[in-house]
Amino acid sequence: MHLEIITPENKIFKGEAEAVQFPGLDGSFQVMENHAAIISALSKGVIKANLKEQFDAVENTDLIEVDSKDKKVIRIDIKGGVMEMLNNKVIVLAE
Question: Which CATH class is domain 2-94?
Answer without folding.
Answer: mainly beta
